[in-house]
Specification:
The protein is built from 4 helices and 23 strands. A 6-stranded antiparallel beta barrel has the order 1-2-3-6-5-4. A 4-stranded antiparallel β-sheet has the order 8-9-10-11. A hairpin with a 2-residue loop joins strand 5 and strand 6. The chain is globular.
Length: 351
């Protein structure tokens, strides 16, 4: 239930609208609207989001007032599921006012907009302490072993603390997987994986142009880690992700389910998706495996930027300086590797 008292406790004046959007029906009436805004003097959480479902026949506004300075925003409950919204602002030197009824309001504070590439591994380590207790015989669930190349094997033990309210209702209180690499039967390296929602392992090594072998693995749903099998060094990366409510630790980012490396260009092509979304291939610079560039370029954004013609895109191969992908499991398309290298360079410079 929306907390109207908490909403009205924020002083949303002294802010400016950064972007604004409307959802429109076939009859060109708006069904919802929202905007992101930036406070002038809130360093801790400088951005906020406001959104409303609308009563189309009672919403007369059409102009996007991006750049408007908000002077005040008031929300009052008129009746169940119906609110009165009043926004006063200054736009292009003139004062204006928007007053309209709405339903299902939403409000979130943000630390940033867009995507953050900040590595959250140190934060994840602290969170791991909360789940560490399940790694015991009491919570053991199952075990599996996979044979890898060059005499390596991977053993995975799963643990979970599950509270069963009834046969149809279970609560996952904590979970953890202990993953261990063995070389010729001897322990080589182990790690904890706290992702119980979508566990995924990799079984192939990356044979790099620098002569080393690297093993990719997950410790969390988002991001990816690499172990240098020849030096024993390891690098973990978990992005802070897309914008998200300030009280959350992570935002959404690309979920890697496949790893494909090209020795000639040092590009790496990740198969996967955003949660519940279409398949895509994201390409990055892998010239420094233990300190890789986190900026990834979407193949979908290159060959179908409006997302109008293609749904799923899957990796096929690197060949002759090009990346070959398959669109909707049928048509193959190619993109020059030079395009990715340039776009990766540009994305890093923009941050």
């Amino acid at each position: 239930m929306f907390d109207i008292e908490k909403f009205n406790s924020y002083d949303l004046g002294k802010s400016v609208i950064e972007d604004m959007w409307f959802w429109v029906r076939d009859d060109e009436t708006y069904t919802s609207m929202g905007f992101n805004a930036r406070f002038f003097d809130n360093a801790g959480c400088p951005f906020f989001h406001v959104g409303f479902d609308l009563f189309p026949e009672e919403f007369p506004y059409r102009e996007k007032i991006i750049g408007a300075e908000i002077e005040s925003m008031e929300l009052s409950s008129v009746e169940p599921e119906r609110y009165s919204v009043k926004i006063t602002y200054k736009y292009n030197g003139e004062r204006g006012e928007m007053t309209f009824p709405a339903k299902k309001p939403s409000f979130e504070l943000y630390k940033y907009l867009g995507m953050s590439y900040r590595n959250m591994y140190d934060v994840w380590l602290k969170d791991l302490e909360k789940s560490a207790y399940v790694e015991s015989a009491e919570y053991f669930r199952d075990e599996e072993t996979h044979e890898l190349e060059d005499g390596f094997s991977l053993n995975i033990k799963s643990y979970a603390d599950i509270e069963e309210k009834n046969p149809q209702y279970k609560i996952m209180k904590a979970s953890l997987r202990r993953c261990e690499l063995f070389k010729n039967g001897e322990p080589f390296f182990n790690w904890a994986d706290t992702d119980s929602s979508n566990p995924h392992e990799f079984f192939d090594f990356v044979h790099h142009s620098n002569g080393h072998r690297y093993f990719p693995f997950h410790i969390e749903l988002y991001g990816i880690s690499y172990l240098d099998l020849d030096s024993g060094e390891v690098y973990h990366y978990i992005p802070e992700g897309q914008r998200h409510p300030a009280e959350w630790t992570y935002g959404e980012s690309f979920i890697v389910t496949g790893v494909n490396y090209d020795r000639k260009t040092d590009l790496i092509a990740y198969e996967g998706c955003y949660w519940g979304g279409s398949n895509d291939v994201m390409v990055g610079d892998f010239s420094e495996p233990l300190n890789f560039d986190p900026h990834l370029i979407s193949v979908h954004e290159i060959i179908d930027p409006e997302w109008e013609e293609i749904d799923d895109i899957d990796f096929v191969r690197f060949e002759g300086g090009e990346l070959v992908v398959k669109c909707d499991y049928e048509t193959e398309k190619t993109v020059s590797c030079a395009v990715f290298l340039e776009k990766i360079k540009m994305s890093g410079e923009m941050v």
